[in-house]
Model the fold of this input.
Amino acid sequence: MLPKCHNIDEVRTLAKRRLPAPMFHYIDGGADDEWTLNRNCSAYSDYQLLPECLRDVSTIDLSTTLFRQPLALPFFLAPTGMSRLFHHDKELAVARAAEAAGTLYSLSTLGTTSLEDIAAAISTPKMFQIYILKDRGLTLEFVHRCKAAGYEALCLTVDMAMAGNRERDLRTGMVMPPRFGLKSLWSFATHPVWSMNLALHPDFKLANVAHRVDALGGGAMGLIDYVNSQFDRTVIWSDVEWLRAQWDGPLILKGVLSSADALRAKAIGVDGLMISNHGGRQLDGAPAPIDLVRSIRQMVGDSMDLVVDGGIRRGTDIVKALALGANACSFGKAYLYGLAAGGQAGVARVLDLLKTEVIRAMTLLGCAAIAEISERHIHGLVETLNSPGQR
Ligand code: FNR
Done:
């Protein structure tokens, strides 16, 4: 089935067939009316690629450096929690596919595989996605564990003061850990392979925080409650300064959208930004990352690495982001569709499709290397910069 998927949308269709509705819509959905979710993708259509002809594009070099790490590709896998929901090989399947492709893997605090198990499994660069939690001791514990396990970078998610309103989850009866409820019963019954697999491997565990809850005497449900209770709405810039002082490797802020915030991050020594609205899962009405990259680049200059995170479904989306000033792109849903559709092979298929598309786009654009892609490859850029979406 996977070889018959010729683009990300077709991998999504296969994932939809394989997953019970609550799991599929947990990946696929966004907050409120899903305006931002949809805008993340449609915004790429506002930019047109302007090729330059008669250039030697006989070999295309996709390699780049991001967060001080050499990568074979200008894109990587964003952190996403709870991979056990989608495939029994969980985060390991994703990390191994990233390693095979030579790109960065990022593990979520809310992963179902421990950060140590990921570190033992792959030799390519890895980044841990951290939160500043109410229990600063746990945040600090993650920093120490990441140092011990050899993580190359830390990424602090800053758009999660509380969870977004994801109404699809309410409609489908999505609960964590997954349980057979009235609303979801039919969907589980019509996906017996997935349901049987869950029954045979009931290893749903937030592996990085489970020890805390075990110490408190909680079960799996207590674990989710524990994590939700840990999101801290008092976190401010001085807390980021505190984290900066604990970690001397690359520190990335994920979820920055405003140019003023980008400048503040730069001033306190943050190395890079993931320009992100959490894939449209948090603040509905937030702008698409692709619309912000140029103004943030102009604000922070060349010293910070910028990642466009959100809405990537095509290689041309990635090339547009690079032309507008990003160093790289990341994505969540695209590879989770692959994970659900076929485990590690599914993620590999997604990475390969996007790689092939980027190579083709660069060839037709007249760019043989990532550094050759620039603003002059975006048609009508002055007009788009002055449009209301840019302000
Ligand atoms: C996410 N994302 C996310 N981000 C984060 O910082 N920590 C997390 O645990 C998660 N978990 C998560 C789960 C699922 C199912 C999805 C789809 C996303 C957001 C993720 O890192 C990334 O910002 C978005 O996925 C980017 O948008 P696209 O590529 O999904 O359009």
About this structure: The domain at 2-386 is CATH 3.20.20.70 (TIM Barrel). The chain has 17 helices and twelve strands. The chain has a mean pLDDT of 93.
